[in-house]
Structure formats: C-alpha cells, structure tokens
Design brief:
Elements (H helix, E strand, L loop, with lengths): L3 H4 L13 E8 L7 E8 L2 E4 L2 E4 L3 E8 L3 E7 L5 H14 L9
Antiparallel strand pairs: 1-6, 2-5, 3-4
Length: 104
C-alpha cells in the first residue's frame, strides 16, 4: 500500500501530491484505570559558557500521559471517497497498536 496515495508526497503524481485526509485533534480517552497523568523529567545537562562546555544538571519536571488511548479525528477532503477514509482508519489503527519495544 502506497502511503503517498493517502497522505501526499511532492514526488508523487499530481493527483497524489496533496493528502486526502485531514487529521483533527487527538483526545485522550478516560477508559483506562491505570493510565493518566504522570510526572516526567527532562534534564539539560550541558550548557555553553562562551567557547567552553559546562556540565550542570538542570532537571525540569512536566506532566505527560502514560497508558492512555486516544480518539483521533479524521475527515476526508472534499471529493474523497468513503473507501479511502476507511483505508486510512485501518492504517492509523495499525500504527496505534502497542509497541513491545516501547513501554511507558
């Protein structure tokens, strides 16, 4: 299945240069009792002082989502068939399957 057919590509034929589906917002669903807001951290360890690199931990906490499913809004562009929308839904569902190598 060629992705350019649905999402567009500058290298594709004229009819497939623009995407056929509009992605709307993605909203977290409240269905999971285990998921929700989690505290996460980013730590900027290095900073420049003139031409020298300095090591200085600078932890910053922020909220992230963990173990949450999302509702993603999709809308076909004008003139795009329902069948193409269904194909894109299948792709999005495939991409949203849990990845065993990635755990939150």
């Amino acid at each position: 299945m060629k992705v350019a057919k649905y999402f567009g590509s500058l290298e594709a034929e004229k009819a497939d240069q623009a995407g056929k589906i509009i992605f709307l917002d993605a909203y977290p669903l409240p269905e999971s009792k285990k998921g929700g807001l989690a505290l996460d951290i980013v730590n900027n360890l290095w900073s420049w002082d003139g031409n020298s690199l300095k090591y200085k931990p600078n932890p910053n906490t922020f909220f992230s989502l963990r173990g949450v499913s999302f509702l993603i809004g999709l809308r076909p562009r004008d003139g795009v068939s329902f069948e193409i929308l269904e194909q894109v839904k299948k792709l999005v569902n495939l991409w949203s399957e849990p990845m065993p190598w990635f755990s939150s």
